[in-house]
Design a protein that fits this description.
By secondary structure, the chain is mostly helical.
Amino acid sequence: MVRILIFAAVVSVALMIYTLIECSRAPKHLVRSLPKSAWAVVIIILPLVGAVLWFILGRPINERNQQATQQTAPDDDEDFLRQLEVWRRQQQREADAKAREQELKSQAKDSKDNDSTSKPKPDDSTGSKKPSPKPEDTDSDTPDAKA
């Protein structure tokens, strides 16, 4: 019988220590029912009962467990759909930018090819001018001498 009491005391102390550590690590705004300091006092004064009360009434609700039970399909999640729309727009902008870049490169290449194939015009700055041909008189009654 003494062995059972010693075992119960060790379990009670271990549970109390575990509960105190968990209480101290819990975020202050997530602790339920009582303030953290009041829970620490309850756990120390009533070791077994305080620990059980902490697990039932004071322990913060685990958000991961709640999210796991409330699974939704990806198309029901508004954040996921919004992120998909942002991703789609970004992909479209990148494709448009790439198309514009290719177009500009092809235009630059075409203009460069046109510049290199056309012959440069002679520079008239040397001062030598060729005489311009005189226009023929079309109002004259005389037939063309060339004809």
